[in-house]
Amino acid sequence: MDQLSTNNNLNLPEDGDETKIVDVTFQYIVIRLGEEQYGIDISYVNNIVRMQRITRVPKVAPYLKGVINLRGEVLPVVSLRLKMGLDEDVFDKATRIIILKTENEGQIGIIVDEVKEVVTLSEKSIEKISHDNKSEKANFLSGVGKNNGELISILDLNMISLEDN
Amino acid sequence: MDVSQYLEIFLDETNEHLQNLNTQILELEQDPENSDTVNEIFRAAHSLKGMAGTMGYKRMQNLTHDMENVFSEVRNGNIKVQPEMIDVLFQCLDALQEYTDNIKNTADEGTNDNEPLIRQLNDILNNKGASGAPAAAPAQAPAAEKAEEASSDEPWYDINYDESQLSVLTEASKQGGKVYGIKVSVDPSCVLKAARAFLVVKAIEEKGELIVSNPNSQDLEDEKFESDFTLIVISDEPLENLIAAAKSVSEISDAVGKELDVTKLHSSETESEAEETPAAQTTAPAVAEAPKAAPAAAPAQGAAPAKAADKKPGKVAVKQTVRVDIEKLDSLMNLVSELITAKNSLVSASSSSEGNNSSFNEQIEYLESVTSNLHESVMKVRMVPIESTVNKFPRMIRDLQKQLGKKLEFYMTGEETELDRTVVDQIGDPIMHLLRNSADHGIESAEIRAQRGKPEAGSIFLDAYQDGNNVIIEVRDDGNGIDIEAVRAKGIERGVITPEQAAAMSDKEVINLLFNAGFSTAKKVTDVSGRGVGLDVVKSMIESLSGEVDVKSELGVGSTWTIRLPLTLAIIQALMVVVGGEKYAISLGSIQTIETIEKSDIKLVQNEEVINLRGTVIPLIRLNEVIETESHPIDENSLIVVIIKKGDKMAGLVIDELIGQQEIVIKPLGKYVKHVKFITGATILGDGEVALIFDANTLL
Fold it and tell me: How many CB pairs under 8 A join A and B?
């Protein structure tokens, strides 16, 4: 993802390191949807808020749950579960809305089951996924990262963008 | 001098003056004898010239200078207004507009000297004898000619001397001093005329005694003169020395002089009083006075209305204005919005808290009235009359008339109607499209009009007025109207609709096809319109202003295009309702009444639910069906119906519950949810909850 490289941390090797490999790292917010963990590039995240009352908007796609009031601004909220073809959300204490800033559509909130932690992954540890193979779910992913033996699927945030609906 | 900081003001004022000139010259074309108009034009041209000069825009200054010369002659009655002259003047205005646009874009006026225009202006000036005098009434002709002669060659006989000046001059000439009149012409391109005049006066004063200057010394200092001024000097030196002294000053294009016969100078007193002035009494024989009185009277009359008009701006109550950056107003407006939201929170907090704290409620009510007034004031600040935008249209129609070879009459009403500044700025183009459309496609050719028994000149009307929370702008013509069958055929030909669809479409739907991109029924592509872009652009532009456009037409009789725009964009009065447990806002502007209807009163017409309300049959719209939710009415046997109206269409919206009236701040929903047609936006309620706003117009 080229557009990500703006926010990278360039970890230059220590003196005396003869290999001179430049390792690029990214930070991800790890969220939970059902049993699976996903990573969201932190540079896109503006805010994380608790679940709040969502005003339904009629005649829109089911995954567009409605709009919320975030400090005087009205933002659309998308169900990540429905967007990915999973079961309907069940809101509980752990449910959060992550406010993403997008280039074309302004701020959008996405509903996740839980926000777990922030991890730093090096570029090397992320395996890219090509979009033409595998299951439908793979279409939402840009890669899979390894963190302490756990696998974290990196969400491709372009999929949040508006489709023809 | 660095003038860049004045650039914005310069552009603003230049545009105002140009607009003013356009309007006034149009008026002059209708009424060539109107001296008020001529004076107004002269003043505007003069101010333009001054401003351009100050800013260092030489070409612009030259052109305005020559225009001003023409107006000056018109004002003095030396040139008659003629159609060709009006054409040239309009071309000049276009050229000036071009300069202004260049300046706006590049801070430079460009390099076009507009020599042909300047030549034409000079031709008008030079032909004044030929075109002006014969046209004047025979009785006035000799007087006019003499006045002209006097004003151009011997300006010293033009000056109205006061008694003391005359006595000084008479005294000096009696004692053998020579009295000279010197006319000094400043180079037209000279920027600092006042400074040049000062230098000339200084040079002359070294050689003799300056008695009178015309204009007076104060006006010379203030640069209140055209290209030349006149000095009356008493000196012992020969005239040549004085002339040479004057010419020694740079940027002085010419200086001519003459030794004066003091007896020929006239006083500022009127003729009847002339006998009382000693100078005139002693020196002027009664016989000689009669012919001289004529030239003296003529310029005096010419000058009189000018002077009166000059004073006019002082008499008219000038409104004090401040130019404010619109961004500052926007931020003020945002603050007012927040205040209203905060007030709404207080209101909902007070209504939910139990107990009788009436003083608290009183204060809340007070706060409510203050915020509404504040909102209204801020809104009013943003409101400007649409005049500034529509004023250019008479000129446009005039040009179209020549371009299209059709006779057009243009009527405009409601220029004073006010709209939000941002809307006024953007509404010009759509209106222009519609007017051009009417002129080109609407109004028939003269032959067809004659066949139909219509007057030869086609009429185009532009009416603006306020209607509730909306402003309506109507473009109307008495032309051909829309040929619905032609549109239908065109739609099929263009592949916009299939023949089956075409057959099923109502006339109204067919007319709406016109707003499709790339749809033009013009048989010929002309410069004026008919490039296939236009109506769709009109529509999208108006919709981007939250407005809508509609057309009514009768074949052979004419069309009416109606633009409906919301008065305010940000804060509205709305009715809050509940449907299926969800809160919605409906703009109060479109609501007629609220009715309670018994279920038994609902009738079915063509399988649609209608009610008969005081004799009017109104279709019912079940809002819960529109928004795809269950209805939970409070009372199973009756319905709460909100009657909405747009133009002459009405409908009844069935809701579950009424909450009440509230002032709401409209927030955009963002691109992500933009495609929901009947929702115009959202608002944040007192408790922080978001409610969607219904656009009742789209439901009709």
Answer: 69
Query: Which CB contacts under 8 angstroms, 24+ apart, belong to B446-453?
Result: B446/B406, B446/B407, B448/B480, B452/B556
| CA gap B36, B34 in Å, rounded | 6
Task: Assess contact for B235 and B205: CB atoms under 8 A.
Answer: no
Per residue in B301-335, pLDDT (tens digit) is: 444 443 333 433 334 445 566 777 778 888 888 78
| pLDDT at residue B482 in the model | 84
Partner-chain residue, chosen from A74, A104, A165, that has the shortest CB–CB distance to B690: A74
Looking at chain A, the whole-number percentage of residues with pLDDT higher than 70 is 77
Contact between B690 and B683 (Cβ < 8 Å): yes
A93 touches chain B (CB under 8 A): no
B411 CA to centre of own chain? 15
Does this model's pTM top 0.80? My answer is no
What integer pLDDT is reported at residue B281 of this predicted model? 43
Quote the CA–CA distance of A66 and A77 in Å, as a whole number: 6
Q: Does A31 touch chain B (CB under 8 A)?
A: no
A159 Cα to chain B: minimum distance (Å): 13
Q: What is the pLDDT of residue B58?
A: 82
- Is pLDDT at B151 greater than 50 in this prediction? no
A72 close to B (CB below 8 A): yes
Instruction: Indicate the residue of A53, A76, A104 with minimum beta-carbon distance to B689.
Output: A53
- Residue identified by tokens 């159609």 is B83
Q: How far is B379 from chain A (nearest CA, A)?
A: 21
Q: How many whole angstroms separate alpha carbon B514 and alpha carbon B491?
A: 9
Residues of B acting as catalytic residues: 46, 68, 437
Judging contacts by C-beta atoms under 8 Å, the chain B residues touching residue A64 are: 672-673
**What DSSP line would sit under B404-442, residue for residue?**
HT--EEEEEE-TT-EEEHHHHHHHHHHHHHHHHHIIIII
Paired with B521 in beta bridges are: none
| B653-683 pLDDT, tens digit each | 999 999 998 888 888 787 777 677 788 888 8
Does the pLDDT value for residue B463 go beyond 90? yes
B321-to-B324, B329, B381, B597 alpha-carbon distances in Å: 9, 15, 11, 53
Q: Which CATH superfamily is domain A2-160 in?
A: CheA-289, Domain 4 (2.40.50.180)
Q: Could you report the per-residue pLDDT of B570-602, keeping only the tens digit for each?
A: 677 889 999 988 999 998 878 899 999 998 889
Sorted by where each begins, the domain ranges of chain A are: 2-160
Contact between B207 and B242 under an 8 Å Cβ cutoff? The reply is: yes
- Chain A segment 107-136 residues within 8 A of B by beta carbon are 107-108
User: Residues in chain A with pLDDT < 50?
Assistant: 1-19, 164-165
* Structure confidence at residue B469 (pLDDT): 67
Q: For an interface test with A, which of B689, B690, B693, B695 has the most A Cβ atoms less than 10 Å from its Cβ?
A: B690
| B591 has a chain A CB within 8 A of its CB | no
**Lookup result for tokens 């407005």:** B547
Q: Which of A53, A56, A74 is opposite residue B669, by nearest beta carbon?
A: A74
Residue B474 has pLDDT above 80, yes or no: yes
The domains located in chain B, with CATH, are 4-136 (1.20.120.160), 150-291 (3.30.70.1110), 326-384 (1.10.287), 386-566 (3.30.565.10), 571-699 (2.40.50.180)
- Tell me if B668 and A69 make a contact (CB, 8 A cut-off): no
ipTM score for this prediction: 0.78
Which has more pLDDT, B597 or B527?
B597
> Which among B629, B669, B675 is the nearest to A67, CB-wise?
B669
